[in-house]
Structures are given as C-alpha cells and as structure tokens.
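Notes from the pairing session

We agreed to fold both candidates in a single pass and log them together. This is the raw record for the first candidate, unedited. Please don't reformat it; downstream parsing expects exactly this layout.

Candidate A
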Amino acid sequence: MSVTVIKPGMLSSFQDSGRAGYQHQGIPAAGAMDERAHRLANALAGNTGDPATLEMTLAGPTLRFDAPTCFALAGADLGATLNGQDIPVHRPLVAQAGDILAFGARPATGVRGYLAVYGGFALPPVMGSESTYLRCGFGGFNGRALIKGDRVALRAPLATDRDVGRLRQSLWNLRIYLPGILASKRRGPIRFLPGMHWLEFSEASRQAFTTAEFRISPQSDRMGYRLAGPALFMDAPRQMLSEAASFGTVQVPAGGEAIILMADRQTTGGYPKIAQVATVDLAALAQAAPGQTLRFEPIDMDEAQRLDAERERAFAQLHEALAPLRATLLSADGVSVTDQTRA
C-alpha cells in the first residue's frame, strides 16, 4: 500500500514541523518551510499530531496512488489534477488505487505546496522527526528528495472494499470554513521585530531596511534567502560570538547583504542580526520566489504575539470542526485503530 513516484518534480521532500531538541549538538531543525500550510494539509487530510507532508517546490511531482487514500493539498496552488481533472487545495479528497496525481496544469501561485495523506506516510523517525535534512542526507525518505521509481508506503490506506465513490461524495459534501488567518495569503510587507543588534546599525541602514525594496537572490534555498538591495552597515563593526540561529532571523555579513535564515538554517551564526521576521509572516516568506521583491515593516511584540495566538486559536477551532471528517475516515481505513499511531 504505497504511493509511486512517476516524476519527482523540482524538489519534493518530506517535512514535518522540524527536529526539535538537537540544535545544541549541531543538528539543524529543518522542517516545513511553510509550517502553516503543512499543518493545514494534515488537518484537512484527517490527521492529528505531526506526520510528515510532502513539500513540493514550483514544479510538483507526478504520483500514482497504489491504494485508496484520503489526501489534501495546501500552500501554493501548483495546478494539481487527479486523472487529468482539476482539483482544489484546502479540501479533503479521495483517490482510488491507480489514480494519478499530477501538477502543472495551470501556472503556480506561490512556491511550495504540501501533500498530506490520511494516517501519514510510513517514514522512520530520525531523532524524533520525519523531516528530511537534505544537506546531510538523513530523515524523510532515504534522506533525500524523491526520485523516479520511489515507492513510499502509507500508514493507513482506506479499506479496499469500501465504496470509495460514496466516501468521496461524503467528504465533498462537508462544509469546511477556513479562518482568514489560515486561508489568506499575505501580500503586504513582511513584518519584523528589531533584531538583537538593531540599534548598532547606522540610522541610514535602519531607514533603508524599513523603506527600500529587497529582491530575493537566485542564490537562495531552504537554508536562507539572500537579499539584493541597499547595503546595511553597523556604525562600528565588531567581532561577535556565535549565537543560536532562528527561522526568520535577518543576518548581515560584513559586505552588507542581508540574509534571512530559513528552515534548513545552521544552528549558530556570528553575523549581526538586524531583524527577526514575525512568526505569523514566515508562511508568506516561504512562498516568495527568487526574483521577487520584499518590503519590511516593523511590528511590536504585543501585536506579533496577538497574531500568533490568533493563528493557534484558529487551528484549534478548525481541528474541532473537522471531527466529523476524522470519524468518517476512521470507519473507512484499512488498519485497526490500535495500529494507527499518527491518524
């Protein structure tokens, strides 16, 4: 009972919310670039907990379901089709054995899409996480991005004798309301809090950071986004001790070119930190492509925390509202309740 990779796409790797508790040993957290979309896909596929989703970049893969499966897509709309028919994001969907999921039928809106399956993919956890850390080759599926011919097992395929058509219609009839903070795609400036060394940067640099445009360089990846724009300099450059690195930290090397640290960031860094992107805008940042321009605007800590709490309440409300979905799928899966560790 598996999913077979017919075409791998540009960069398709399994990611959960990240590998926590090992950064002091030099192990990066990795995890989904757009954690909001990762969590949303899992919720809509009927999952609780944090099973890995398939993070797909720009050109998605072509996959064959080898067993009946409930799945959901979230994040960027990469032009998904099932057996050649357009399918939406943000809905629980059902595939039958032999169905083909493909992408690219229409221009992508965003960069990273997420595929969740009910029960999760059967991946061995490494240091408590199913995330793929590509640079060191561990976690996920054999520590790498998908390649043609891979077969990824499913933890909880639907029972083969179930009326899949009836189940598909039942799920399609479910009314699902997504709170705005989960469904919306922010297109305004990226909000930030002053970094640890904000006041050590020149007034001109601080002004430029909040008013100028910065373009994401082609030399950007899951580790970090390099920004092309006004050079940013400290009033009195100095040597600094390395400190812990966080998702969304904006570091500025000696040349003045800012770098935003992303999901595969290193565990420590010694460059001055001009800013920290607010957690609520990390999803928008993850969906930005090389060549795209960014603007930044300040936000105070109270507002950043309020928005973060609002997002968590929205997820809790969605989880409660999806109880009928989970009950329907639990009665339709092909394994016993005691065998399900992630659903």
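Candidate B (folded immediately after A)
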Amino acid sequence: MGNKLLKVNIHKKLKEFDLDVNFELKKKCLGILGPSGCGKSMTLKSIAGIVDPDSGVVSLNTGEETVYYDSNKKINLKPQKRNVGYLFQNYALFPNMTVEENVAVGLSKNHDEKRISEMIKRFHLEGLEKRYPRQLSGGQQQRVALARILAYGPDVILLDEPFSAMDTFLKEQLRIELDNLLNDFDGFSILVTHNRDEAFQFCDELIILDEGKIIAKGDTHEIFENPRKVQVARLTGCKNISKIEIIDEYHLKSLDWGVTFEVSEKISPNITHMGIRAHDFSAAQKDDVNVIDTANSTLVEMPFEWEITLANGLWWKYDKQIREHEFVIPEYLKVDPKNIILLEE
C-alpha cells in the first residue's frame, strides 16, 4: 500500500440528523457498522460523487493527490472521473446487456478482450458470457457486478450491504470469495453493513456510526474486545447490558440483574453500564467469584447452541453438536472478572 491515504471529512444536513463523518484510511478495508438509517450509505454515495455533501473534503493520495471534492476550492469531480467502484445493494446490472457486455461497460471503446476474459475467469463466469442478468442467480449477478467494477482497475471499492438480499448458504460462499478478492485488491475498500460478523470478517479498521456521528473508530478486533460505549457494545453483538452502581474500584452492582460483580480493571467514575457477552459464562461452584444462581432458567435448543435465559434476564449461549438434544443447566454460573466489559453511556 505504501503511503496511500483516503481522506473523508464531510458534513451534510439530512432530514433526521446531520451527517458528520471524518476519517482517514491507510489500511486496506474499512468497515462502517451501524443500524439502518444512520448515514452509512450516504457516506459511500458522497465518496463516490453520487450525492454532494454540503461541505468538506474527499481526497485520495496514491503518490499524488486527487481531490474528489472540496467545498472551499469548489472542486467536485463527476463520479466517472473518480475511479471509484460502487457495488450497489441490487448490483445495478444493465438488464439488456449480456454478462460480457456488462463486464465491458467500464472499459474504454477499444477495450481489451483479454481483460474481459480475465475477469470472466477470475469470477467463475465461464459459460455464462452470453446470458442476461435475469437468467443468473443472485450470486452470479454479484460476481458480474464485481467483475465489472474490477475490470477498469479502481482505486477504491465501495460495498453497500453486499449480502443483504441473499440466503444464508449463498452468503457463506460469497463472503469467502469477496474476502479473497479484497485480499488481492491493491486499493482501498469500504464495506457498509449492519451485520457485525461481516464487519469482523472483512475489515481491518472499523467505524461505528449512529445518527450520522462516529461513536467509535479504530482496529476492528480492538473495538469488539473493548467497545467502551453502550451503543458500540450493542452493535458488536453484546447481549447482556445493565446499568450499574459502583461499589468500589473493583466492584460494581448490576441494577438490572441484582448481582454484584468483581472486575479486573479499575472502574473509573464515568462508567455507567456493564456488559457480558453471552458466550462468556461457565459452570461454577457456589463459592467462586462472580457466581450467579441459575434456578428457574429457561432453555431453548438451536441447531448449534443452547440459549439459556436466567430468571434475572441474563442470556447464556452454550455451543452444542447438532445431534445433542439433552442439556442439564449447571446450578451455578460464573463470569471471569476480565470478561466484564465496562461501558459509558
């Protein structure tokens, strides 16, 4: 990657809120994770030039700087001039063009047949060249859309919820394909999603967006392990979150579950909540640290895990084999002090 840098600093007034996004991307894949309607797609469209921000700067440096948009300098490159590939949710293929014609769209008039056949091969579209989009499965359509984007060698690929319309089986396959593709891709990619698994799988860095504001940004693994804020913990899939009362530097009381816990890091006064991931409980003896009584729990069997809800509302998920159908809930559960997540409002 060298010293490549994508800079995005934009402001746009929307109906429900103001979109204020400011980040620099130096590594390959950035994820933007957030609930529906939080400004994720609007951010992508502003980078691509499909939508104009009210103010700000979008620029790409790949040795020399290309300014896509600068409100002060009155620069606003058309989408065709930005060398940005945009994968829309519905792929936006041309219905009256064949697969190979769709792939050739971004290439110049005297386009290179070799480049097209290279892309057809790379995306496993051999034998489908003369078909039209309506004759393709969802997965094949996505591969055509990606082949079309990559054929003209973009600097940036923008992926807008690329798996939202797919069934689980297809999703698994395409996730692996997309992962390989992004690893080989020499430019930047930005993936917008509300699915925490996708964010975790694809993205080196992560931004969490809520109502147009960035509420967390940094290394993906770090954000999952230490979300710091209640909304970030929720969006990264933490099932158990409770308001707390601080007892002393290493003890707090959960107000929602009525349990006192010991934690491993010093509790600062701005901590208002705690979180426990649903997989972080284990069977315990009565006199262990952070013990919870499991009397009157309910048990639900899923194909690959048991979901146990304790009487006080805590959720425990426990992995199982598909053929196991019996499970005895231990009398007591515990959570390791280092697995308690301290959160601010």
